[in-house]
Design brief:
alpha+beta; Immunoglobulin-like; C8orf32 fold; 4 domains; eight-stranded mixed β-sheet; 20% helix
Length: 650
């Protein structure tokens, strides 16, 4: 080959690399085209230009090492929001943050100048909504002078000191991302890794796998990841987001095989290991207390019930998280003497008191409904965020959650409906039991009113209001320890009828008990509710006409999520008192399906006109696949909103 040929060859190679550099620079320039992204994302306060996480699992001697390397670079589009001026990186006893650095790229109108961020502080954060103590800390990265067009870059590592907490890699955020990359690498022959993708079907995910020097490398790459949004009655973040679940079932070293999670045997064994020193000794005072609570009761059921109500009413619920203290209950005797505890403390106290008198009550781990996966689907610690007690009888399993104030015995709290409980019967003995959904017929709101027409088209009414199930529990919590005037304000909103001229005159709560329905009697008036035309008076008897106004699933992205199924009944009687007679009443209407339904019925006699309206919702989650059937019923209900009854004067 001639020198001239070599010269041409090297020139070609040089031009090739120069073109790569040019394209790279062009791509970066496009990413920082502030004017373009301000126009393209007018609602977004920021966009991620780059976002990546690399999970590296290695075996070091006889232990496992897990490091997650995080990198993010985002362009600020709105700097007038407080939460854009800092970033929190959380750390605790199980996940240690290291190699943290951050940079501020200051935009001068044409280019960005990179400067390091030094305002990084380690802080402790306590929850404002009832948390007594926790050990959660976070690094606060402050960039108070950030402005539109600036770029923030943050890099840090997370070291998992407890490998069972390797959990979730999120694709989704409330901000758009231009490019996202996630990888997991692990020694395939020595580590058993389980993965599960959640809600990824609508994302442009490119997944690849390769084996390199004994390491299995899983990669997920995406461009143009859309942001999450917020809607009324929306599900939790984990229901909306797209992500990957990860857990390590086991790993093998020269010292042997170590089981972690990934199956129920492993998970249950770990839970028992955490609890091995709990309730190790007997406490005479606790035994004496248990005997005093139960000694006059003949059946086991009555005794368990008495213990449950004692813990529910005497132990104040306070979340208390401190390292493994977030997973290990405190001694039952200690909780009893302190008179406060978190969910696992209260559950453990119930178990200990019941087992003191040889009753079959056991610890049960469970996840709340904001977690969209069950133990049977992906056994890992992050399937559970709650603990309850379970009473096992030959015919039934009863779920006892004393954290739920005003919840009757054997009535599961709303947040654990339809969730699997992992119930421990001792070493190598456990089973899964699903908490039932509370029926719509149990969660009942019943409002019955009798109306009298006064001169000037004014209505005077007497009402009887009855609540049961979760509807009752919710109201009891609303009214708890409130003054009469505050209760009146709350009830005015709940009982309001007709128009904004509704006035709640008086009310009396005739019964308010954990074990019984809540009942109240009230008196009210409504001005200018009737309309007149010649000798006719017109009245809309459906005071629940706007019931579904916020529930129509039009242009909706996420499922509708409800706390509970329910039935709402409205019974209205208009007294004619010889002054009026019915001229016209609307026809009866009824529509229903497996999701919801309603039934409207009108009747009349010489003394009164009667309207009965029943509404029910029979699902807790309405998915986009259900929207057509859901909207069908609601649209038919909305057609009845203007139905009027006419009366003529005698």
């Amino acid at each position: 080959m001639t020198n001239r040929s070599l010269s041409h060859k090297y020139k070609g190679i040089l031009l090739f690399f120069l073109s790569l550099i040019f394209l790279r620079e062009q791509g970066y320039a496009q990413k920082t085209d502030v004017a373009y992204y301000l126009k393209a994302y007018p609602e977004a306060p920021l966009i991620y230009l780059e976002k990546s996480e690399d999970v590296k699992i290695k075996l070091v001697k006889n232990s496992i090492s897990i490091i997650r390397e995080n990198h993010q670079k985002f362009l600020v589009l709105k700097s007038n929001l407080n939460h854009i001026r800092n970033k929190k990186i959380r750390t605790d006893g199980f996940i240690k943050v290291g190699n943290l650095n951050a940079y501020h790229y200051v935009y001068n109108g044409s280019k960005h100048n990179k400067t390091p961020i030094t305002d990084i502080d380690l802080k402790t954060e306590h929850d404002d909504n009832g948390t007594f103590y926790d050990d959660d800390k976070y690094y606060n990265i402050g960039f108070p002078n950030v402005k539109e067009g600036d770029i923030i870059e943050i890099n840090y590592d997370e070291e998992y000191t407890e490998p069972r907490f390797l959990g979730i890699v999120y694709f989704s955020d409330y901000y758009p991302a231009l490019t996202s990359r996630y990888t997991v690498s692990y020694p395939e022959n020595m580590v058993k890794l389980n993965t599960r993708e959640i809600n990824n079907q609508l994302l442009p995910v490119k997944k690849t796998e390769e084996l390199k020097k004994g390491n299995r490398i899983l990669s997920w790459n995406m461009d143009s990841v859309p942001p999450l949004s917020s809607e009324d009655y929306e599900p939790s973040f984990r229901h909306k987001a797209s992500y990957i679940l990860l857990n390590i079932e086991r790993y093998t070293t020269p010292g042997g095989t170590v089981n972690l999670c990934g199956n129920l045997d492993n998970l249950h064994s770990w839970y028992l290991q955490l609890m091995k020193n709990v309730n190790f000794t007997e406490d005479k005072e606790l035994i004496k207390l248990t005997d005093s609570i139960t000694h006059n009761l003949s059946s086991d059921l009555e005794k368990v019930k008495a213990i449950y109500y004692w813990v529910q009413t005497k132990i104040a619920y306070l979340a208390y998280e401190d390292g493994l203290g977030g997973y290990i209950p405190r001694e039952a005797a200690v909780v009893c003497s302190r008179r406060f505890g978190d969910c696992k403390d209260m559950a453990n106290l119930i178990v200990k008191m019941a087992q003191t008198i040889h009753l079959p009550v056991y610890h049960a781990w469970i996840g709340t409904r904001d977690i969209p996966y069950q133990f049977s689907e992906f056994p890992a610690p992050f399937c559970a965020n709650h603990m309850i007690a379970a009473y096992i009888t030959p015919k039934d399993t009863m779920f006892l959650d004393a954290t739920g104030k005003y919840y009757p015995f054997n009535f599961p709290t709303a947040m654990i409906q339809d969730k699997e409980a992992l119930i421990s019967l001792g070493k190598d003995k456990y089973f899964l039991a699903k908490v039932p959904l509370i029926s719509k017929t149990v969660n009942l709101e019943q409002d019955s009113v009798v109306l009298t027409i006064l001169p000037g088209n004014k209505l005077l009414g007497t009402g009887y209001y009855k609540l049961s199930g979760i509807e009752k529990i919710r109201m009891m919590n609303y009214l708890d320890k409130k003054s009469y005037s505050t209760q009146k304000k709350i009830l005015k909103e709940v009982l309001e009828k007709g128009n904004n001229k509704f006035n709640l005159d008086t009310f009396y709560i005739s019964r308010q008990s954990v074990d019984k329905d809540m009942e109240l009697i009230y008196k009210f008036s409504i001005n200018d509710y009737l309309t007149e035309d010649k000798n006719l008076k017109f009245i809309n008897l459906n005071f629940n006409k706007n019931y579904f106004d916020k529930l129509l699933a039009t242009n909706r992205k996420y499922p509708l999520n409800f706390t509970n199924a329910l039935t709402a009944k409205l019974y209205v009687v208009v007294k004619l008192e010889g002054k009026y007679k019915p001229d016209f009443i609307p026809t009866d209407v009824s529509f229903n399906n497996a999701l919801l339904g309603f039934n409207q019925k009108y009747s009349k006699n010489n003394e009164s006109v009667i309207f009965e309206n029943t509404i029910y919702i029979d699902r807790l989650t309405i998915t986009p696949m259900d929207f057509k059937d859901w909207n069908f019923i609601i649209n038919h209900y909305k057609k009845t909103k203007s139905n009027l009854t006419s009366l003529t004067q005698n």
